[in-house]
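Objective 1.3, modelling of assemblies. Example input:
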Amino acid sequence: MEKVNLSEKFSLFTNHWEPKIVGELNEQYVKLAKLKGEFVWHQHENEDELFMVIKGSLTIKLREKDICLSEGEIFIIPRGVEHLPVAEKEVHVLMFEPKGTVNTGNTESYKKIDLLEKL
Amino acid sequence: MEKVNLSEKFSLFTNHWEPKIVGELNEQYVKLAKLKGEFVWHQHENEDELFMVIKGSLTIKLREKDICLSEGEIFIIPRGVEHLPVAEKEVHVLMFEPKGTVNTGNTESYKKIDLLEKL
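Predicted structure (tokens):
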């Protein structure tokens, strides 16, 4: 049982769009990711997904509106809702989602991360 | 579907040891709380519990050691592990736990919060 220091964990990786697992509870993972640029439109059929911005700014595009998140802001994307994360500059995010969640959701064409790295 | 600004939500209440619900996903609640002083030793039989310090410092006493958390630090208390949160000065925390979790865990003698307030 050790604490997790977010800054320290973020210093351990540089790749974008590759979430790292930093905690686990109640069949959910706490993940950290660095995002930059545009991801792909996707949805998660059976999982709600939480994004919390730790550093920088993130836009989560939904079909009907854009959600612009700054540091200290959280957004929960309900299951089944199409979304597209976009970050003009690098942003550090904390994510919270069930263990089985694949970051590209229903989008088969995009590279899947089969084995998530634990930090 | 609205974002949650943590600072704004924390400005809406002052009471200590009364977590407020600010989000819900996958049968879990995201809660915010202001803590000051000492709680009671307790454990949650069936739920793991996450604490993230947003502002200030928090000590989570375990039977075998103390975990000292500063801003940007997370600690997950596994189910069944006795713990005692202590905050010398007021601390703002984010908590993540299953919907059914009662903040005092197994400790019947302490006032239970029957109806959690949503902000």
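The CA atoms of residues 2 and 23 of chain A lie 10 Å apart.
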